[in-house]
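Researcher: Please translate sequence to structure tokens.
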Amino acid sequence: MEVIKLTQANIQDIAAQAASVLRSGGVILYPTDTLYGLGADAFSDEAVAKVYAIKGRDEKKPIHCVVADLAAAANYLEMNDAAMELGKKFLPGPLTLVLKKRSEVNSGIAKHIDTIGVRVPYNDFCLSLAKEFGPYTTTSANVAGGANMRTIDQIVEQLGERAAMIDLVIDAGELPEQKPSTVVDVSSGSVQVLREGAIPSAKILE
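Model: Translation complete:
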């Protein structure tokens, strides 16, 4: 497990290194605009299985992905007016949009489900990596059901032996206390808030 300190000056270099890890089927631990996340190739069955194993997460519970923008998401998802309106207002930012997947998308996070959640974080590293690599998983870096930790040391301690399955750790220091992203299902064209997070439900429904 390699650990690299992230600074404003080395974002592009580390994004390129992280993309190389993802291409080889590896897993990264990285900062977002809310929490630290676990990243892997979103459409690789093997890579996504590693993320589930690290978290000890039930494989029936979906994992979302990061994309560079909604135009990139349209390659995998069926976009609609509700998604575009919310995207225009809140993205990049702490919003996860759940949309119907395209019929040909059936691997990784899309296996055995009809919808996929996508994020466009307000975070330079996340966006650089999405442009360099493409969609990668975003799920909080914690044991399933465990507390969300804000430092790398706390996360590694909580994960225990499973932390050894992480190939690259991108350390941005202690993240400020934040709520997770707000998750909104727009797959039917209407708006349903599944989880209220950093963006209040009232603002979404406006």
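Researcher: Any highlights?
Model: The first strand starts at residue 2 and ends at 5.
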